[in-house]
Amino acid sequence: MPPRRSRPRTLDEAFGLVVAQLRTERGLSAERLGNQADVDPSYVRLLEKGNRSASIKTLSKLGAAFGLAPWELLRRAQDLLGST
Hints:
434 Repressor (Amino-terminal Domain); 5 helices; 64% helix
């Protein structure tokens, strides 16, 4: 399980937390998620740390791998930020 972090400060950090939470809930490694989403596993880890911003294409690929619409990933990230 990824380490708990304080409240995210940016959308990139919040999105990373969402990806990490969904990945762990589904019992996936970063490598497996990367393979399912056709995204490099090291990039998955950078996203989870909030060190990169996902493109629309990557957002769509990750959403498909999780069985969620891309907007759902963003909504969850926005919810973590506490903004509407």
